[in-house]
Design goal:
homodimer, 430 residues, alpha/beta, Rossmann fold, Dihydrodipicolinate Reductase, domain 2, Alpha-Beta Plaits, eleven-stranded mixed sheet, six-stranded parallel sheet, 14 helices, elongated, NADP (chains A, B)
């Protein structure tokens, strides 16, 4: 049965994503009404530059006073697509206080203040949905917090930043260096003028915090996420990866410790085997691999950014929140009951690929192997290559803690026969 | 806030899936209670053979009287994992009438009677959830009917049967024939003693009907789904596919017509390019590729069958239905408002790979090409190979309707110079 009074939506932000949300709300109005059970109406659009012409949006709806818009009291759902911490945080909080539910695409805010925002939403018995905050259109938040709600997730391994995946894929397929690949990404619009948030892993770290929190029913703050960018990855690293049957991806990795009593979250470049489904994720695509007790291995793949895909995720949430509103219910809120401690990076256990420049003389391998043994790091394979009196030693370890590996590398650097540590890279996905 | 009165669950069926559902309900009871907001309790288990020892299940809960169990009146959720049409249909209907919501893994029943069951559920204001009915643990129903509820899905292309994917993957990687690969699948437990439902595409067709219905907000009955099995696929077909840079998969394909005014659903073997993400889905895994207006291309990948993965999907639904129950709401029901006509197979437009055995003499190609032209089927490439006075002609067409292709083949068979049509295979995913 169709209700005739429309649900009112306030849109905060009308850039690439916001304008697409508005466009789809207009062009697909009949479908949205049928799927929700009531029409939805754009009741206001808060922007910074009101004079800009916005095709398809009634100028009478446009305002620069976002605060007044969220305080109106007749708004059912506020869609926040302005990004950043403030004024988004205050506007969302104000929206809850004035009776609206919220759909947000704001990963930075959710990663930093998700718990506080969920608390305000719950206090006012409202929904806070944010599928668009992680991996664009790929349904990930909903599958993790609903489809897998009866399962125990042990690991989330994801390519959650399209810019860096484009750059690494380019380096892999053409042999280009980092700067050359970045320049191409910038020219094609895949990288921003200041690519820091992407290439230094800040964007992926925010997504890792959100994913870990949902997967493990535990609060994981942005500060809890270990973060290493991918600007140091070289063509030589790709060559090493190829020799191992691997490629290199910037991964967001959220893991439950083997004893189940703690979790970790980290972002760094890593080698993964070519046979792993994540290895074949090309260009600016995203994909997230989820391992859980009962369901085994699942993967979710799709465009991780862009106006239309992000708008699709926002609108899926909008439909869900509107349905909840009509039935007088709210969807699942924050689930942090497990409250597991988040362990530091030193506790993370994984494998490592280490390239050393060493003196080309007898006994060096024995010295190096002794250092690994003394730190309890077991060696899987060693490959030695001589070149002009110098030699390189490539060591791949068995699983070891990051702390043990760190101690090993520190000790290796002190050896006279070790001229330098050319690279250290983690090996994942095996 | 935790409610202390437990929600009561009745389990119909305690085979591979049911026993795993019961096990997880027991071992993960605390997690389920925390995620739902109330404890869940196994209140009864209906089985056929009560004397069988079932580890971890209180014998006092076991009954052979499923009807009495669903009529008890104190049951909150009935989990139906017995499969087949009857008695499942009557039991589910009775459950709704006696106040329970239902979680089902029954693809055959949902494909055949989904609309009627949804109607009874709605009449009694109860939930009917069935994530486990399609592609095991892979979240697919929920993403399609919730995450993509604000988008317009145009195509669903899926590997939704693990048995046939195992067989085809084996044929592809080893060059084995169909029978040899089937024998191995049977020996390893991937194929049942009577593999008809899998290899003839009945199982995939049921899933296609369910997926098409949800994707297009339109009722699609099992009878609406064109179905062709994969028992005729030969090693020669794989060789042809390889020459085209393709492999062969049994695909379930649900499409919206280009004008948006009708839909089609079909299951058949098809060539797909090796570069397509579905091409690298190995073994008994499932994957579903979804194309929509705003989100572009998404893929969902994971184990498509098995006790634990299916139980994971059932339990995710159980949590959702229990949450709905506590909040006094129901989740999204059937959405068939679009009511688009389902077109027959003849209207499907795709590309074709046709191998003809022809006489090795001048003019044959001209004759064949004329037949294609007369039927309005445009040729993309032709390859001619001579062998001992005979020749083979491999034609790959541009897009054409199935009806036009059928007419073409009929006419080709009548040509004196065409000795036989060795194979016809559709080419998808381009």
């Amino acid at each position: 049965m169709m209700r005739t009074r429309p649900l009112k939506v306030a849109l905060l932000g009308c850039g690439v994503v916001g304008s697409e949300v508005a466009r789809i709300m207009t062009t697909h109005a009949d479908d949205l009404a049928a799927r929700i059970g009531a029409p939805v109406e754009l009741a206001g659009v808060a922007v910074r530059r009101p004079s800009k012409v916005r095709e398809g949006i009634d100028p009478a709806l446009v305002t620069t006073d976002a605060t007044a818009l969220v305080k109106r009291g007749d708004i059912d759902v506020v869609v926040e697509v302005i990004g950043g911490i403030e004024p988004a945080r205050t506007l969302i909080t104000t929206a809850f206080e004035h009776g609206a539910s919220v759909v947000s695409a704001n990963k930075a805010l959710l990663a930093q203040d998700g718990a506080a925002l969920h608390a305000v939403a719950e206090e006012h018995n409202k929904d806070l949905y944010y599928e668009a905050a992680v991996a664009g259109a790929i349904p990930l938040i909903r599958p993790l917090r609903e489809s897998l709600a009866g399962d125990k997730v042990n690991r989330v391994l994801g390519i959650v930043n399209g810019t860096t995946n484009f750059i690494l894929d380019k380096m892999d397929s053409t042999g280009a260096g980092y700067q050359e690949a970045l320049d191409e990404a910038t020219a094609l619009g895949y990288a921003e003028a200041d690519p820091t948030a992407d290439v230094e892993g800040f964007d992926a770290a925010a997504k890792a915090a959100i994913l870990a929190g949902i997967a493990f029913h535990t609060r994981v703050r942005l500060d809890d996420v270990y973060r290493e960018g991918m600007t140091e990855v070289t063509a030589a690293d790709f060559a090493s990866a190829k020799e191992m049957g691997c490629t290199i991806k910037l991964l967001a990795i959220c893991e439950r410790a083997e004893d189940g009593q703690s979790v970790t979250a980290r972002v760094h470049p890593a080698m993964i085997p070519l046979s792993h489904p994540l290895a074949s994720v090309r260009g600016a695509y995203n994909a997230v691999f989820v391992e859980s007790d009962a369901s085994g291995q699942l993967m979710f793949y799709g465009p991780g950014a862009g106006g239309s895909p992000t708008a699709s995720a926002v609108l899926g949430d909008l439909v869900a929140v509107c349905r909840n509103r009509l039935s007088g219910a709210t969807g699942p809120g924050e689930s942090a009951y497990a409250a597991l401690p988040v362990s530091p990076m030193g506790d993370v256990v994984t494998r490592y690929h280490i390239s050393l420049d060493v003196a080309d003389k007898p006994g060096v391998l024995a010295q190096v192997a002794t250092v690994f043994a003394e730190h309890g790091v077991s060696i899987d394979t060693v490959r030695q290559q001589g070149k002009d009196g110098e030699a390189s030693l490539v060591v791949v370890t068995h699983c070891a803690s990051d702390a043990a590996l760190g101690g090993t590398v520190e000790a290796l650097r002190k050896l006279d026969t070790v001229r330098g540590v050319a690279s250290i890279m983690r090996v994942e996905g095996e």
